[in-house]
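Input (Cell division protein FtsX):
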Amino acid sequence: MRAQFVLSEIGVGLRRNLTMTFAVVVSVALSLALFGGSLLMSDQVNTMKGYWYDKVNVSIFLCNKSDAESDPNCAKGAVTDDQKKQIKSDLDKMNVVQAVTYESQDQAYKHYKEQFGDSPLASSLTPDQMQESYRIKLKDPQKYQVIATAFNGRDGVQSVQDQKGILDNLFKLLNGMNWAARAVMALMLVVALMLIVNTVRVSAFSRRRETGIMRLVGASGFYIQAPFIMEAAVAGLIGGTLACGFLLIARYFLIDHGLALADQLTLINFIGWDAVLTKLPLILATSLLMPALAAFFALRKYLKV
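Output:
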């Protein structure tokens, strides 16, 4: 009988404050969708880091004849065969190095033509203007400085470049976008909490006569509060369910179908369905507990039970 009464009161409360309940559902849905999206964005960035950092190389570019005339690092002339052998020998002895690949001037010219063949500059370049290089695969991409310290400024070396630095700029941009989404999410959560508190208070005020009678006949504080708390929890759970739906639809249409980013951006290793599905229980739990706790603390002061 008591359970039936509580459930009936929940239905009455939700219908009585339909507009505010709708606002709570929408704000909770949007805020938790942003919350889940920010978590998935973090997973995506970490997945991309693991994928790309494992593929980046450190490049040691060697001086050519053109560099000897214009670059201070190559003031002693183009790299000699002995210098190249010494650089290769030193690289092979380093524990941080996993593999070393040599690229000749002809190979560098071929790769440049493949990538930038349409550039106006490509027609004026010749193989002897390209730089020989050693492409080093590191066991740990974070150990770039070991290579830079050992070879920067050495005779025959024009520069040491780390591809990881280029990726770091991309990941900084993605992380910045992620933090912006989290800021909007926090704002939406504050709005949702304010709406929940106001909805509960309006509902309690509209039923003050019933709660007064219940208090007089000796009903416990929890029994009086339960319908209001559960109203907020149900509205939040509906919003959380919608947020889960938004994330599933976004993953389906953005990555697998619709825009089909997985097919168009084959160089990006996108997160899988498992990453999305593991976030759904957290979103549902948050959507249930957050409104319930907000309603509980609001009612303690308002109803004074």
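The chain has eleven helices and four strands.
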